[in-house]
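Worked example (supplementary).
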Amino acid sequence: MTTAKRDTYTPETLLTVAVRVFNDRGYDGTSMEHLSRAAGISKSSIYHHVSGKEELLRRAVSRALDGLFGILDEPGAVRGQAIERVEYVTRRTVEVLMAELPYVTLLLRVRGNTKAERWALERRREFDQRVADLLKAAAADGDLRADVDMRLATRLLFGMVNSLVEWYRPPSADGTADESGHPDGSDGGDQLAETVVRLAFDGLRTSR
Amino acid sequence: MTTAKRDTYTPETLLTVAVRVFNDRGYDGTSMEHLSRAAGISKSSIYHHVSGKEELLRRAVSRALDGLFGILDEPGAVRGQAIERVEYVTRRTVEVLMAELPYVTLLLRVRGNTKAERWALERRREFDQRVADLLKAAAADGDLRADVDMRLATRLLFGMVNSLVEWYRPPSADGTADESGHPDGSDGGDQLAETVVRLAFDGLRTSR
DNA sequence: GTCTATACCGTGATAGAC
DNA sequence: GTCTATCACGGTATAGAC
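After joint prediction of all chains, the assembly is encoded as:
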């Protein structure tokens, strides 16, 4: 915050490194040894900043959940027709996924083995439920197809949206083409969110 | 195979148990101790049947991949209009996911830390590529929307389809209602595959 | 085919010097 | 704030008796 060059770690900067490794090897597949090598400091130095592996996980999923729940309080999510709110939340969820990619990635992969993980799963279900309620309202308005259960529709919608974490890679900061195997959006920037919404709501087929 | 009651383990029956635990705790989060307790035999007895944890993983993802690649050789996937073949493969993928749920679940969660995992990832990409080619053909026919890159469309389609492993639970054998938190399809049986196809290709919105 | 006992190593975490 | 040294534990895997 104060110094220009951060040469020493804070819990924040350490988190950045840790989340990257967690996403690479999986949380359970990551040892403190792995983290220490990635951070360039010794194992014991890590314990100077955080209480252990699980605190890093807690901080990471917290950040992801804050981003997602924040959407539900935005004007576009609370005002207007249900169908418009649904599309808004969908679009914003894609945007939050892109903006907080590593944190959300970790959140979506949590299994529930520890207390922090179970808490994360519970809050995720809460978020899904809130969105499912929105879908139900839009269906009641006659704006979403009546032949499909809206809980199922919500699951499939999130399945599509959340899959972003498996393949989306942010454009590199220096205009260089990203050749990391997983290509980046290739849609020009925020266009991706719009594409996802159109595909989810209007379908893959040629518009009739 | 020969005896009616299997009281002793074979690699096959052991695999059934192991895959369940892997999916529950994550592969890396599962120790041989966990497996031995779930199987009701000692750790060392497991090594009598399989060479170790990774062989169990290899067998599991193999089975999943066989199921998926099998689809591409079925008549419905090789004959007819591209758009029809795409819908067929999509529907069948859902069905294979349901039929081989635990195995495919494990496949879809593989991270790439070991050789077996990297091989699985590679074959998955191969399958995705084959389907992406089908989508491109259907787009060239003018049957899929021209405003979306078909690689992106394939990813989102698989995102939706593959999400099944996160929430679909097979109906219980004894007709009892499934109250396991994650409700089962609730769509009557094979209807689910049809619903996914309709949602993916025609969208969530009311048909115009 | 299953067991107990054990080898051996990597794990998360701590102590204490600098 | 970082290090080296060390601990107790749990991990995979093996040996050999029954």
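Two points are worth noting when inspecting this output. Chain A has a mean pLDDT of 92. Chain A has eleven helices and no strands.
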